[in-house]
Amino acid sequence: MIFSEITDQEFSEFVLSSNQANFNQTLVMNQVRKDLGFETHLLGVRKDNSVVAAALVVIIKSRIKSAGIYYGPILNYADFACLEFFTQELKKYLFTKGVVYCRINPNFVYAYHNSDGQLDNNKYIAQKEFNNLINLGYIHNGWTKTGIDASNRWHYVKDLSQYFDSYENLIMSFRSTVRQRIRKYQKNNLEIRELPLDKIDIFLDLLDSSASKHGFTLRDRNYFLSLIEHFQKAGYLKLLCAWSDNIPISAALFIIYANECVYFHSGNNVEYIKLSGSYALQDYMFKYCLDKKISKYNFLGFEAVFDKPNGVLDFKRGFHGFIEELPGSFDLPIKTLRYKLYRLLKK
Fold first, then answer.
1. Which residues are paired to 59 by β-bridges?
2. Is 253 helix (H, G, I), strand (E, B) or coil?
3. What is the CB neighbour count within 10 angstroms for residue 16?
């Protein structure tokens, strides 16, 4: 096996061939990271002239120099030999860059749950993959309950594959309250428009309104400008807004990559929340996914609290999907003593 930097084409082709493919590990996101001033590297492992592992690595300079692999690396975590080789070579590579540790959050499903959080014992639990990481010196950052951050551990997902030929069957699979809200928005004659980049302030204002209400912290304007510009140009993004009498009432950003549509960010005008603009946007994208035969509809993160009211989760599970629990984030120490001191000072 050979570890090295790989070409753009090698990286893209390998990622797209994997069931771990996601928009964070793309050439487009590589450009976004560069726009924001980060140093990036496309690294991989070749075996018999074929790529068997790949990662977009971002180097971050703050109090100490660290690296991040968001929703990656992309490889077979059950293949201990490949994971071991990648890990050893990554440590050597990052050591020469002065990196103290590398944080990864792999994009494999650790376990599946139903909407109420109950474990689905009939589906594969990735204990071997998790153990391989621990045995190679990765330090797990805990079985966190939060899911609304840079490394979402909990995803709410709807499988659309059985509904490609019947939009009506898809609607009937939702909870009755969601069906009522979809019918309500249709009666309200809301208009859905795609927002161009020069109208981004409409989206950001609605996003800020929702963030203030729910206590979220948003990324800055430059992040959204770069993200929307590059993903729109690549054809991987829909920035939608629902209007009522020419007033923007709800907006959402969706990223479509490989066989997945990700409901990434959204915001609402709280004064018009009863018009069900957010449901209008979801309905629009469901129809889009059925038309394009995109089977995985990912509502992304939520707080994994199931025994009390949970507004974000309650909205998502109204669409009657299931939960993917990811393994979370891991730290790989590169300079062990400095990393231990860093962790000690953080406590």
1. 39, 67
2. strand
3. 13
For the cut 80, the answer to whether the pLDDT of residue 35 exceeds it is yes
- 303, 109 contact by CB (below 8 A): no
Alpha-carbon Rg for the chain in angstroms: 21
Phi and psi (nearest 5°) for 55? Answer: -155, 135
Rounded Cα gap, residues 75 and 72, in angstroms? 8
8 Å CB contact between 282 and 174: no
Q: Are strands 65-69 and 101-104 parallel, antiparallel or unpaired?
A: parallel
Residues forming beta bridges with residue 44, ordered by sequence position: 4, 54
H-state helical runs in the chain: 8-16, 27-35, 80-96, 127-135, 167-173, 176-187, 200-214, 221-234, 277-292, 311-317, 336-346
Q: What is the pLDDT of residue 214?
A: 61
Q: What are the structural domain ranges in the chain?
A: 2-106+125-133+328-346, 155-324
Please compute, for residue 254, the number of CA atoms within 13 A of its CA located in the half-sphere on the CB side: 24
Distance of alpha carbon 17 from alpha carbon 129, whole angstroms: 19
DSSP structure string for 25-89: SSHHHHHHHHHTT-EEEEEEEEETTEEEEEEEEEEEESSSEEEEETT--BS-TT-HHHHHHHHHH
pLDDT digits (tens, 9 = 90+) for 63-82: 899 999 999 999 999 999 99
Structural element, H or E, at residue 159 = strand 154-159
d(CA 254, CA 132): 33
54 contacts 141 by C-beta, under 8 angstroms: no
The residue type at 270: V
Whether the pTM exceeds 0.90: the reply is: yes
**Does the domain made of 2-106+125-133+328-346 have the CATH classification 3.40.630.30?**
yes
Strand order in the sheet with 139-140: 2-5, 39-47, 50-61, 65-69, 101-104, 330-333, 139-140
3-state secondary structure of 169: helix
What's 155-324's CATH class? alpha beta
DSSP annotation of 123 reads S
| Sheet with 247-257: strands ordered across | 111-113, 322-325, 154-159, 296-298, 260-268, 247-257, 237-244, 191-194
**What's the average model confidence in pLDDT over 26-44?**
98
